[in-house]
Amino acid sequence: MVLKAIKFRPYFYAAILLLLSTSAMATEGGGTGSYPDGLDNFLSGVLPPSGIHSLFYGGNIHYNKLKGNNGEQIPVPGFKVNVNVLAPRLVWVTDQKIFGGQLAYHTIVPLLDVNTEAAGKHNNSKGIGDITFGPALGYHSTPDSGYVIGLDINAPTGNYNRNDPSSLGKNHWTVQPVWAFSYFPAYGANVDLKVMHDFNFRNQDTKTTSGQALHADYALGWGFGNGLVVGVGGYVFQQITHDNGPNSAQGKASAFGIGPSVRYANNKGWLVAVKWQKDFAVNNRPAGSQVFLKAAIPF
C-alpha cells in the first residue's frame, strides 16, 4: 500500500521528527503523502480473475535529507528516517459487473518497523499501521491491456502519539480516488501508470488538515516473451492545495523518483516485481531512496 515551502520555527529539531514520523506520509508540517510513493509497479492496472487473491508488498523506505522551499537541504544533525514494511493485501474479485467493469474489493494491512533519529534522539515503533480498504472496477480493454478505477480509504488505525516521531499512524482519514492503466504484451514495450488524488481529513490532535495531493506511480519496460519485463519505475508527487491549521507547512511539497524495475509473471498467477528508486527534485519533504517488492501468490 503509501506515506509534504517550509519556514522553520525555534522548536524545529523536536518538531521535525514528530512531523516525519513513520507514517512519513502526511503533508502536515512538511512530510510526504498518504501513500508510499512508488509502491506499485508493473501490472498495477490489471485485476486478477474472479476469486480471492493474496498479494504482499514489502520494502524499505530510507530518508537521510530534508529539503526546504526551493530544494535546499535543511541541516538537521543526524537526521534519518528508516521504515521497514510488510503489507499483506487481500483482493476479492467478484463476478458482478457495474458500468461494464468487474467489481472488486481489497484491503491492505501494513506491518511497520519505524526508526527515527535527529539531534541525538532515537525513537522506534513496531506494529500495525494505517489500514487501507476500498472498492474497484476492473476493465479488460484488450488481451494486452486493462485499467482499474477505484476508491481507497486510509483509516487511522495505527498507534499515534504526537510526541513520538516513530508513531505508526497519521491520525487522520484519507480518501483517495485511483485510476490505473497497464499495457503488458508478452513481447515488446510495457507501460503502467497509476494516478491517485489524496483528500485528507483533519488530524484532531494537531487541529490541522494536510493539503490535497496529486501523485502517480509509473513503470516502463520491455517484455522478453517469457514473463520477464525489465525497465524503470518511479513516481511523481505534487501537493496541490495548502495545509490548513496551526501545524501547517507554509508551502507545497513536490518530488519525483526513478530507478530500475523488473518483474516476472507466469500463466499460473505468480508475480514478483522489484524496484529501487531514488528521490529527485524534492521540495518541502524528506529525500532518500526506497526499495519495494510486490508478490502475488495464487490460492
Structure summarized in a few sentences:
With 299 residues, the chain is mainly beta. It has 1 helix and 16 strands. Helix content is 3%, strand content 57%.
How would you sum up this structure, described in words?
- It is a single chain.
- With 299 residues, the protein is mostly beta strands.
- 3% of the residues lie in helices and 57% in strands.
- It is built from one helix and 16 strands.
- It has one helix at residues 12-19, and strands spanning 51-66, 80-98, 101-108, 111-118, 121-128, 132-142, 145-154, 174-183, 187-200, 202-203, 208-209, 213-224, 228-239, 254-265, 271-283, 286-297.
- The protein has a twelve-stranded antiparallel beta barrel.
- The longest helix has 8 residues, at 12-19.
- The relative contact order is 0.22.
- The model is unreliable at 1-26 (pLDDT under 50).
Topology:
Blueprint: H1 12-19, E1 51-66, E2 80-98, E3 101-108, E4 111-118, E5 121-128, E6 132-142, E7 145-154, E8 174-183, E9 187-200, E10 202-203, E11 208-209, E12 213-224, E13 228-239, E14 254-265, E15 271-283, E16 286-297
Antiparallel strand pairs: 1-2, 1-16, 2-3, 2-4, 3-6, 4-5, 6-7, 7-8, 8-9, 9-12, 10-11, 12-13, 13-14, 14-15, 15-16
